[in-house]
Amino acid sequence: MLAPAVPRPAAEFQTRKSLKQMSFSLSVIIPAYDEAARIGRSLQKLLDYLEAQRGRSELIVVDDGSRDETARVSEEIFAARPSEKVESRVIRVRPNRGKGHAVRTGLLAASAPVALFSDADLSSPITEAPKLVEPIRAGQYDVVFGSRALDRKLIGVHQPWTREQSGRAFNLMVRLLTGLPFWDTQCGFKAFRMDVCRPVVEGMLIDRFGFDVELLYVCHRAGLRMLEYPVRWDDVEGSKVSFKTGLDGFRELRLIRRQARRGLYDGAVERTREAAARARGRPVPPGEADIQSDVSAELAGQRI
Question: Which site from 40, 47, 86, 132 is most exposed, i.e. has the minimal number of CB atoms within 10 Å?
Answer without folding.
Answer: 40
